[in-house]
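Deliverable D4.2, example record:
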Amino acid sequence: MKNIFFNKIGIAGLGLIGGSFAKAFVEQGIKVYGFDKSIECLGSAAESFIFEGLTDNEDEFLNFELDLIYICLPVNSALKFLEYLGGKKVTTFITDGCSTKKSICEKAEALNLKFVGGHPIAGKEVSGFENSEVEIFKNAYHILIDAEHKELLEALKSLHSQIGMKVNVMDVNRHDKIFGLISHFPHLIAFSLIDFVENEDSLAFGFTGGGFRDFTRIAKSNPTMWSDIFFDNSDNLQRLIDRYIEELTKWKKAINSNDYDLMKSMISKVKGLREAL
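Output generated by the structure prediction step:
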């Protein structure tokens, strides 16, 4: 098997995740180059003094002669960037950090790109290069999607392990199902809960405590990124919404039964599951 090494990595999208990857790679002695359409973002990136080159021009980005292109853009923008790379018949190795994988992987395959999809299970509710930090990847999971490009897959395993991540390889459909359940759906619940309280009694916001703020912290997340995710993983999310309505109905029936022992056992079961996480 041919060994692949990454000495020069170009990062498309210099927000929280792209910026954090840049800082993590530089720590390992890898040269990084950046692309972003936001002049403000490029300014913040330039002030970090870690990039060998920065640009808002796609063609100039490709002229950096990179070993790896790392796409850290919202899903819709990532799909368009893949189309651009395909149109340029790019032969450079490519990966991405998008939260949904099926449409991205299918697009890359259709364009005949040397691509392996990825998803770092890391982040914060705030966005932007100014909030990027190496520490968010320490002991965090990185999911790689199983692909025909085995050499690239192995190289990406090594790269992410090198920056302190725990790498797991997963089938694309299973990925979107799992993270629809434990990431995308909880974000939807957080967004909808804030909206629900606003519509039910907005004065209640004046009395929120730590529990409510902790539960809804992720509702501060980036609207563009999460709109893309919800639409891209819509089949899984719609199924989960229907299932969750059934789950809420079960709890409603338990409350209506006025059965104290039943309610206590239901809560105790969930408490044990949460404590085991």
